[in-house]
Amino acid sequence: MEIMVDINPIEYSNKILEALKKKDLTNFILKMKDYFYDKNTKLFSKNMWSFFMEGLKKDDSSKTMAFLDVNYLKEANDNYGYDAGDIYINIVIDLMRLTMSHKDDTAIRFGGDEFLIIYDKPLEVSEKKIGMLKQITNLVNNNLTPFEISEYINENYSYDIDIETLSNICTLYNSLNTVYNTKGQEFKISFAIGYGEYDNGLDIKEFIDNIEQEMYENKKIIKKESNINKDKKVQIVSDKCNNVSVVELDKDNNPKLDTLTVHSNVEYLVKSASCEKHSEEISLEKSTHGIPYDRKIEIIKAILNNNCTFFSDMEPDELIIIANMLKKEITIDSVTGLIKKEITPYFLNTDKAANRNVMILDVDGLKKLNDIKGHCMGDQLLIVLVNILNASYTDESVLIRYGGDEIVIIYDNNEMEENMNQYIEEFNSSDMADNFKLSISYATELFDTNVFKTPEMLTNQLDKEMHINKAERKARENKTSIITDEQGDVIGVWDDKIRGIALCENHIKNEVGVVCNVL
After folding, report:
1. For residue 88, what are the contacts with CB-CB under 8 A and spacing of at least 6?
2. Which of 515, 433, 482 is nearest to 266 (CA)?
3. Which residue range forms the structural domain that includes residue 18?
4. Residues 371 and 497 in one domain
5. Is the same domain home to 402 and 473?
6. Using an 8 Å Cβ cutoff, are 136 and 73 in contact?
7. Which of 138, 233, 256, 419 is 20 to 30 A from 340, alpha carbon to alpha carbon?
8. Most distant CA pair in the chain, distance
9. CA atoms within 13 A on the CB side of 454
């Protein structure tokens, strides 16, 4: 049996791998290189995260690492479609590439809106690049031409910018701004960044935590400055019946009664003082499929270099173990155990999914839970949902983690959907729901190829329906979330528009000891 050129790794069962000749096993392993890269951006994918961390630990030279998070990507996807979100991401990627001039500069797409840039030079050199990245962004946002931007950067940074890449950025920016203008909005590139100098004398996990925390602090400042009108003050008063009144204040702090709104559906959420960091997912000593971590790093390096000789002395059994390790890491999401989004085309196509039900499901409030309780709690919520889905759907069903908070399900029996809703109700009524309630928004369509000519047409329709359902549910609930710290002091209100916490400028106590807040 010979390896097929365009075969998907998920098709290779252990039985098929055992039937391959040694040469074909090696070819299969080397073909996995394509999956080390993010399909949309061509940057290294999160699969390569630990590989680079290990390499940095062993490198004696100082590097600069920058953790970058794209602001308002979810807003772009939700309001203008995933094509708009992809354009936004490509703009930021090109901006990053403009500053990655050294041959060993690289970047990893860590998540949907998160990137780690590794500059090969120490901070005294690379900080200039980071400053230039911010400055170019500001100039593009101010509608300067590529020539004007290039001239400015050359004069102020003594740096010859790639004019072709810059022109592409400006073209994409103008096209996306045109889309935003259709809804009376203006598009602006916005990201938060945290960075520092790393050398191998530092604890790498602690270092990554620190620059990520700096990024999150900068993100709070950006969102606060861009979304809160400093001339506008809002007072929030809670009464003993758990109602909350919100009213704007004038310049003398007197309430403007015509702005008064009363909210009866109120929840109080305690923000955790500690926040789980992404670097906690790294275990540099662990083994995978019985392969020691250091050995795994050697294997990945050989694949990146197309080094056939590295595998020539291995027995077929060892090659099969390596192939299975790679297949699992490439196809299976490590948090949920579901199939990764990159493998979706293998299942969602006109051959395999035609005349089957397809659902897009969105986990309500996952971003809020991550921000307030930490990513660990958000992962627990996802795992609870996945357990419910696995209990609801048959082995013939296909479950795909389609995004951070989205899951695609391909299934046949409509009763499975009823089972899912029943199990969610049972969970929310149980003692297990003390930390969080499980809520989902979803849409389902039959993949009729006479109606939907392509899978993209189907998923676009499902995405629109799902977001309509989500908006209607929010309108029905009309829930207000007050955020407190662990001492009980109110620190803000969750704002769905900015998908973050609108922080209090200060807060006072009224005569009955109920907290009032000025935002």
Report:
1. 70, 73, 76, 176, 187, 189
2. 482
3. 9-36+291-331
4. no
5. yes
6. no
7. 419
8. 82
9. 4
* Location of structure tokens 């979706």: 344
Spell out a b/e string for 254-272, using b for 16 or more CB atoms within 10 Å of the CB, else e: ebeeeeeeebeeeeebebe
3-state secondary structure 125-178: HHHHHHHHHHHHHHHHHCCCCHHHHHHHHHHHHCCCCCHHHHHHHHHHHHHHHH
Residues 73 and 209 in one domain: yes
Whether 100 maps to a domain, the answer reads yes
Coil, helix or strand at residue 405: coil
Report residue 224 as tokens: 């606060």
Domain-located, residue 279:
no
pLDDT top residue among 206 and 261: 206
Antiparallel, parallel or unpaired: β 406-411 and 191-198: unpaired
CB 210 within 8 A of CB 63: no
**395-449, pLDDT tens digit by residue?**
889 999 998 889 999 999 888 999 999 999 999 999 887 778 899 999 999 999 9
Does residue 314 fall inside a structural domain?
yes
Counting the structural domains of the chain, the total is: 4
Same domain, 471 and 493: no
Please indicate, yes or no, if residue 132 is contained in any of the structural domains. yes
CA–CA distances in Å: residue 323 to residues 128, 163, 211, 294, 299 = 42, 42, 35, 17, 11
Task: Specify the amino acid at residue 342.
Answer: E
β-strands 398-401, 339-340 pairing: parallel
273 pLDDT higher than 90: no
Is the whole-model pTM more than 0.85? no
Instruction: Tell me: do 310 and 370 sit in the same domain.
Output: no
Give the pairing type, strands 480-484 and 266-270.
Answer: parallel
Residues 206 and 125 in one domain: yes
Q: What string of DSSP letters covers 220-269?
A: HHHHHHHH--TT-EEEEEE-TTS-EEEEEE-TTS-B-GGG-EEE-SEEEE
Do 403 and 504 sit in the same domain of this protein?
no
